[in-house]
Fold:
Amino acid sequence: MEFNRVVGTRRSIRFFKSWKPVEREKIQVMLEAANRASRSMNADYPRALVVNRDDLDKKTLDALRNPTTTADLDLAPTYIFWYFDMNYPQGTPERLKELVEKHVLTPSHGWSKAYVDDFLWPQILKPLSQIPEAVNFMGGTETGIAICNALNAAVDQGLGTCLHAFTAPAVIKELFNVPDSWYPVWIQLVGYPAEEPEAGGQRPRKPLSELFFEGNCDTPWKEDPKVTEYLKKEGMIQEPGPFPYRAQEVRMLSRMFGLPE
Ligand SMILES: Cc1cc2nc3c(=O)[nH]c(=O)nc-3n(C[C@H](O)[C@H](O)[C@H](O)COP(=O)(O)O)c2cc1C
Structure:
């Protein structure tokens, strides 16, 4: 699928073909996409634990349930537990100097090994790595950027996916030997969509002019209608929901899965 269409087709999918496993190859593509995402300091923030629903016992499954994550857990065959490793600042000077060696960070922009060793690490990045709020902010942000790639890689491969609140991290930690330094972020459910991939249409979003600005914050971004038309053709902007038959689709799926209608 073309990039613009992947972005436009992604929806949070909540009805999965519970009986159809996800190929390991497709999960690998998602993990690689996450690993290729941009990341500050080239640090290894994200950690992922991939688990098959059917390898979990009922007690564990029930521990993961919460008011916003319910039937989804029974329907999705694959779970990815996303974390960030709070130890990510370790090795930062070495990684930055590696980028200097590889001509990624260049003298033209003020970079050198001495700049990293004598100033950037001791004066800026090391003190930052000792502030828990900063560690958590960067850990959550960078892992979110990586997860976004994994979401889009799932859609590109015809899969459905949705992020969910990470309930009961202590249960998962105990069961799967999760290291103490891993901080839970989100659970990503993955499977083949049982609902249409468009899931009733694109979600309501405010126009760019209400969210983004140009020059100063009193000047809303003015959309170029030609670009908007182009994005409609490309599939980034799609039909808004609900499709006329969406209520019926949900009713029929609920009936099929024995869920409340
Ligand atoms: C970080 C994150 C956490 C989410 N957590 C939940 C959740 O716990 N349960 C749920 O049903 N949906 C969850 N969602 C899905 C959102 O509710 C969904 O994004 C929203 O309905 C907008 O629709 P879209 O993702 O299809 O564009 C989450 C989404 C994100 C990005």
Q: What stands out?
A: The radius of gyration is 22 Å. The longest strand covers residues 182-191.
